[in-house]
Structure formats: C-alpha cells, structure tokens
Amino acid sequence: MFNSYLTCTKFRFFIWGFSSSTATVALTLVVFAVISGTTLANVISDASKLLIAANDTTAHASCATSSVGSAEALVSNLFAAINTAKCELTNASQWPADFADEALREGLEKYDFVIVGAGTAGSVVASRLTENPRIKVLLLEAGEDPPIESEIFTLSSTLHHSPYTWTDFGEPNPNCCQGMQQRRCYWPRGKMVGGSSSMSGSIFLLGNKEDFDRWRLLGCDKWSWEEMKFLYEKALKASQHEVVDKPVGTVVLNQFDHLEEHNELAQLMLNASSELGLRYISDLSDGTIVGYTDAIPANIEMGRRMSVAKTYLGQVSRTRPNLHVIKKAMVTKILFSSDNSRAVGVEFILRNRHRLKVATMSEVLLAAGAINSPKLLLQSGIGPSEHLKALRINQIADLPVGNNLHDHGMLPLILKFGREINLPSSMAEPQSVADYFLRQTGPLAASISIMGFINTNASSSSQYPDLHLVSHTIVPAGTADSFKFLQLRDEIVAGISRAADNKSLLQIYGSLLRPLSRGKVRLRSADPQAPPLIYNNYATESADQLTLLRYVRFVQRMCTTAAFRNYGLQLLHVPIEECDRLPYDSDDYWLCYIKYLYIGAWHPVGTCRMGAYTDSHAVVDQRLRVRGVNGLRVVDASIMPEITSGNTNGPTTLIAEKAAVMIEDDWKEELT
Ligand SMILES: Cc1cc2nc3c(=O)[nH]c(=O)nc-3n(C[C@H](O)[C@H](O)[C@H](O)COP(=O)(O)OP(=O)(O)OC[C@H]3O[C@@H](n4cnc5c(N)ncnc54)[C@H](O)[C@@H]3O)c2cc1C
C-alpha cells in the first residue's frame, strides 16, 4: 500500500490510460499533487501554464532577440545535465542482465532451482541462494525492468493501469466496494522486476510481536518474533558491514525527506493524537506499536526507490555467473514427474511468442505473489478438486489453494477544514524538477508520511493495535473532484464536492490490522492467460465492521481535540443515497458507509497458507513445501496464515530470507 503522501493516498492517483493528451497531462499533475499532499490548486495552475506554453508555438519566437552564445550554452548545459541525470536513474546496469537471448539461441540447461517471479520474495531468495557459487538459479519474471516512474517513487502511482501493473478487479460482491466504479474492488500488483515493491509506497515495517505469536499458536512454531527480528537484523547488518569482494543483498532503510511545509500537518496530527493519550512512536521495529508517528522507515535513498529487488538482486546479479534472470517470461505451468510426485520444471511463454520449458534438479520456488502464486498452482493441478474438475485440469494434489485471501483494506474518512492550512510547493514547478534531477531534493524527493496504530477496543489496554490510520493528506479547496482517483462512482464524487462547499479537506484512511473476512482466488478458465477470479469479501464479518465503527468513533473523538478544533476540522457527510435513508451518524448509517467505501489496501496475503501437518487449511508446511508433492515451495506473501500488523513488504522480505536459509539447509548435502 502507498503510504501518506504516497502510500496512503494511493486511491487518488489512478491514471487511466496514461497518454500524452492534454487532459491526461493535467490529470497527471493533479495526481502528483495528491501524492505529495501538495496544493492541488497550485498544480492545476502549473499544469495549465505548462500546457499553454507547450501549445503556444509563438513562445519560441518570442525568445531572446539576440545572444552572443554564452546564455544559450548555459541553458543547453542545464538541459543536458538534467537529461543525463534522468538517464542515470534508469541505468540498466542496476538491474540483472536478461538471459533470454542466450536461452533462445542455446537452449536452457538444468538449474538447481527455478524461481517464478522477481518481486520482493523472488529477488531475496535468488540473491541469497546464489551467494553459494555452487547453486545455479534461474529467475523467471513476467515483466521487465521498472520504468523511471518507479525510480522517482513520488511518481509511482502513475504506473497504475500501465503495462507495468497486473490490473485485476474483484468479482462483484453486494457487501463491499459498492461505492466504486462498476461496484468492483481493484487489485493491482507490480508486473516488473521488483514486483509490487517497484510501485509501492516503500514503507518497510516488521509487524507486531504478537502477529508471530499468533502464527505460533496456529502451529507455525518456527516463525517466532525472535526469529523475524533476527532475520531483520541480519538483513540490515549487511548494509552496515559491506563486504567488498562478496556483495550481499541488503535492506536499505531511510526516513522520507520532509519539506518544511509538511510540518504543520504533521504537528496537527501528532498534537491531536497526543491529546487522546497516544504516545509518539520513535521506533516502529520494536514489535509493540500503539501510537502515532511521522518517523517511518522506507526503502528510499535520496528520493529514489531502493526496493529489495534493487539492493538484493540488481546490485549483485551481474557478478554471479550462477544466477540467470529471464524477463518477459510468463510461467504458465509447473511440470511434474510422470508419477506426479515431484515438480521437475516449468513451462513459460517468452516475450509473448516462444513457448519454452526448463528443468530443475532440486526445486521450483513460487514467488509470484499472493494472487499469481495460487493461480499458477491451480493451473498446474494443485487446488480444490471440485474446482479443478470443473475446469478439466488434471489433479496433482487436492489442497485449499487460493482460500484465505485477505488484505488490510482501507476506509477513507473525509474531514472539512474550517480554516486553511499550509500546503507544500508543487512538484511540477521547473524548480522542483531541477532540484530533483540535479540535487535529489525538493518536492519530488520528499513526502509526508504519518501513521497511527491504535487499539480501538476501549476495554483493552493491550499494545496489540487493531487499526492502522494512514494517509492524512489534504485535498485543497475546490479540488474534491480528485476523489475520482479512489475510483469512486461519479455521483459519490459529485456529492463530496457539494458537501465540501469550497473548503479544503483532510482525508484519513483506516485499515484493519487483523481482518477476519476472507475471500478466495480461483481460475476463470483453464487458459493461463485469463485473469484470475478474485472473490473479495472486505469487511463482511461483523467483527470487522465493528472495528471499523470504532475507528469512525475514534476520528470523531479526534475532532473534539483542541488541535482539530483549532482548524475547525469536522467529519464531512458524504452523500450516499442508500445510506442517507438511515439516521445520519447512527451505527447503521456507518455500516452502510463501510459497505460502499471500505476498499482494498493492496496487501493480499494468505492464499497458500502455511500451517502444521494437522491443519487442513494449510497449503504449505512450515518449511514452505507444498503438501503432498516434492520439489515445490511457495516463498512469498501468500504463505502468511494471518496478515501482519502493518504494510506487508517487510514481512515478505523476511519470509524470503527464512525460505532461503531453509532451502539451503534442506539441500546441504546435495549442493556441497
Ligand atoms: C500499489 C502498491 C503499494 C504498496 N505499498 C506498500 C508499502 O508502502 N509498504 C509495504 O510494506 N507494502 C506495500 N505494498 C505491498 C507489497 O508490495 C507486497 O506485500 C510485496 O511486494 C509482496 O511481495 P511478493 O514477492 O509476494 O509479490 P510481488 O512483489 O508482487 O512479486 C511477484 C512477482 O511475480 C511476477 N509474476 C507473477 N506471475 C508470474 C508468472 N506467472 N510468471 C512469471 N512471473 C510472474 C510479478 O510480475 C511480480 O514481479 C504495496 C503494494 C501495491 C500493489
């Protein structure tokens, strides 16, 4: 999920069909503004100025009447410097070389391990396994290297609905996403090296100590908090003690740069939360988090994304002859031995044209993410027998693949300002662009990220929060139309605009940290190219609805603090016809609101659930081996039995770290 400026306001940046049309350019600039929490009005005006200049052919004619050359040279140098810096950002050498041409020319040898998906998990596992030069790995990725908008992380929202995204929509469900276009939830994931972490908000959290205690109670006793913390420290340590002759994968963590202008909003939120008795969190990695903070660790360096794909994989792959990476390689099937007992390789389509097979001597490792890993298992005959039978897919194993789909989800609440607040300068200003490319500073390199972890259950003083408050971004007066980026239906956006009454708005999103509602992933058809069926059940369990109700009441309590009253902040009544038949502010009203506006947080997990041998809901065992077959593991976010308390990229990185250790351990004798 995007957070704050970027991460949490994600739903506002959808750019459908990012084209070069005038309207789209203007829209894009508006999106930049929303991402950064900057002044939409300023950006719209910047956008119109730029567009007028671009369309005005006389602009060039009215250039300086004469020059002896030095001024022209300076301007040309500036353009050249910016252009060089831009190219440097997308320098191919930061990503693995593509082995595809060689594979087509000479065919593929056998590998010890074939990994499907070069997202977060695939990058980490490939990197760790190939630290041992005797282990030969092939990494297959459906996408290509990330484009420049992924590098400039404040622009990554513009990757939505592009070829770099798997753009899937959930099946209609009358109980959720009713306020969205076509009444369907949106399920994007990254389709490029780095996977979803190449388009994410870059927030890197560990989760709560109790998350892993719960995993233990579910029979996963090898997955304790202590173990996760150990892996986390191992990952960080690598960066602090770089070994020059043997580079190691590592997690780069920095806080987002804040602009001076961000401080007023940060202070407002921190003051209000403090009035409600919430402490300031200075260390989000200590495993017990209740409170509010603007100190958020992210995979960022100097305004650039430093995904684990870049640091673990990109930085080492070109020095490792035992690691081959093939891009634009869409894996369509896992291949099994003649008695169906062992995975022996995979089939894939290269560059949409060439159908290839590759064999593995040890294992196939699935790291295609929580939607595509179960999809691939189902396509290959591992899944619920009735579903496979209906699609006439030869069954290899009857397992609950695709069940247990869950996500944090997000409920936007909109508040109206009684008076104006400071807004950061625009990303679209030429000065901002120059600052970013020449010095990696300014609005394009900075972002405000504020988050709160609260325990909405008043009867409990536990440090185990049940709600994550994210986003906290301002929608300046007159720009409520930008809520279209939430993919809300037109009449709802128009209603927000009317209710805003030309005042600036503050939006806050609440995410369930421990949702109980579960959906599932299934196949639409036996054709591997067909998009999956995603049955989302956001907040259909009444316990989830009650937590969200308590979140609404919490934000209402925030409105009573001196900090909020000072800005005249009040909840906006969003007109929704069905809900407005109920008394406003009653519990029933808010339950109706939840049905319309509780939407995805893009943190899918759980679809290849890990569990004990006795757990009939488990797809993989504690060593991540798919039950009932040999030579096959799932090593990504799908294995989480329950989602962790916070953004999921950090835990997925650590799952992959642990997977690599277990795989090496299991093959120690054969591979030494
Ligand atoms: C827009 C967005 C914002 C997010 N923001 C944050 C955030 O700020 N912080 C955070 O912690 N988490 C965030 N997340 C979630 C986080 O990115 C994921 O939890 C994490 O990336 C999951 O890692 P993974 O390896 O399981 O899957 P992914 O990273 O999605 O990787 C899967 C990879 O497999 C490839 N693949 C899929 N199918 C095939 C196939 N058949 N053949 C070959 N390759 C295939 C995909 O192209 C992709 O590269 C965000 C997610 C999204 C979508």
UniProtKB/TrEMBL annotation:
Residues 369-383 form the Glucose-methanol-choline oxidoreductase N-terminal domain. Keywords: FAD, Flavoprotein, Membrane, Transmembrane, Transmembrane helix. GO terms for molecular function: flavin adenine dinucleotide binding; oxidoreductase activity, acting on CH-OH group of donors. The chain crosses the membrane at residues 12-35. SUPFAM superfamilies: FAD-linked reductases, C-terminal domain (SSF54373), FAD/NAD(P)-binding domain (SSF51905). InterPro entries: FAD/NAD-bd_sf (IPR036188), GMC_OxRdtase (IPR012132), GMC_OxRdtase_N (IPR000172), GMC_OxRtase_C (IPR007867). FAD binds at V331, W602, H603. PROSITE patterns: GMC_OXRED_2. Its cofactor is FAD. Gene3D superfamilies: FAD/NAD(P)-binding domain, Glucose Oxidase, domain 3. The keyword Cytoplasm does not apply. Belongs to the GMC oxidoreductase family. This is Glucose dehydrogenase [FAD, quinone] isoform X1. The lineage of its organism: Eukaryota, Metazoa, Ecdysozoa, Arthropoda, Hexapoda.
